[in-house]
Amino acid sequence: MNPSWLAQLAPEHPPAPAGWWPLAPGWWVLAALGLAAAVTLVWWLTHRGRGLQAGLTEWVQNQGPRHAALSELRVIRETASDPSTLARMLENLLRRYALAVFGPERVASLTGDAWLALVVAEGGEQLADGPGRSLLAAAFGGRASDDREHWLAAAEGFLRQAPRSRQTPADR
């Protein structure tokens, strides 16, 4: 080797530091996951305070009333432990389902025995007589009863057996 050739080379210098733009693919994936987590957190925080029934009802809004009601019944079955709370939730669910299926003209004015007669006639046979009256007493009078299984079975029977719709186009 000739030492003069080596002397003619430029002095040693480090390469330029790497810029941080454009980002490497891993950073793009991390940014997308962070954005998805933020959106999910915001959605969860805004929907959890609206209540179990409202959130679930809105979530299944695009599905049919029967499917939505059965989904809500499953949630009620798992979460409601207090008899009067369970009775109120079931009464509310049955009333909303009947309004959606049969229309307000047929259902809205029904109370007490007339309301129970409709539910029993349309599939809620287990609410005939005692269990039906205890449901109404627990829902509206606060008198708790231990007919939980009758109420849940009758609600499921009513939701499954009631016709999908008896409304005429003029009723809607």
Describe the secondary-structure layout.
Elements: H1 3-7, H2 25-48, H3 52-59, H4 65-79, H5 83-102, H6 104-107, H7 112-121, H8 130-141, H9 148-161
Helix pairs in contact: 3-4, 4-5, 4-9, 5-8, 5-9
Based on the model shown, name its key terms:
single chain; 172 residues; mainly alpha; 0% strand; disordered C terminus
Notes on the protein architecture:
- The chain is an all-alpha fold and 172 residues long.
- It has a domain at 56-161.
- Helix content is 65%, strand content 0%.
- It has helices at 3-7, 25-48, 52-59, 65-79, 83-102, 104-107, 112-121, 130-141, 148-161.
- It is rod-shaped and about 115 Å long.
Helical percentage: 55-70%
Radius of gyration: 31 Å
Number of helices: 9
Order of helices and strands: HHHHHHHHH
End-to-end separation: 99 Å
Tell me, rounded to a whole number, the average pLDDT: 79
Beta-strand level of the residues, as a percent range? under 5%
Helix- and strand-based class? mainly alpha
Q: Write down how many β-strands occur, each being a DSSP E stretch of 2 or more residues.
A: 0
Task: Point out poorly predicted stretches.
Answer: 165-172
Taking the sheet with the most strands, its summary is: none
General shape: rod-shaped
